[in-house]
Amino acid sequence: IGEGVVSIGTTAFMDCDNLLNVVIPRSVAVIGDKAFANCNKLEEVNILSAEVEIGDYAFNVCYALKSITIPDGVTSIGYCAFGGDKSLKTIYFLGDAPVFGAYVFSLVTATAYYPADNLTWTNDAGLKNPPSINIMGPVGEKGDPGKDGIDGLSAYQIWLNAGNSGSELDFLNSLKGDSIEQTVEWGFWKN
Question: What is the per-residue pLDDT for 180?
Answer without folding.
Answer: 35
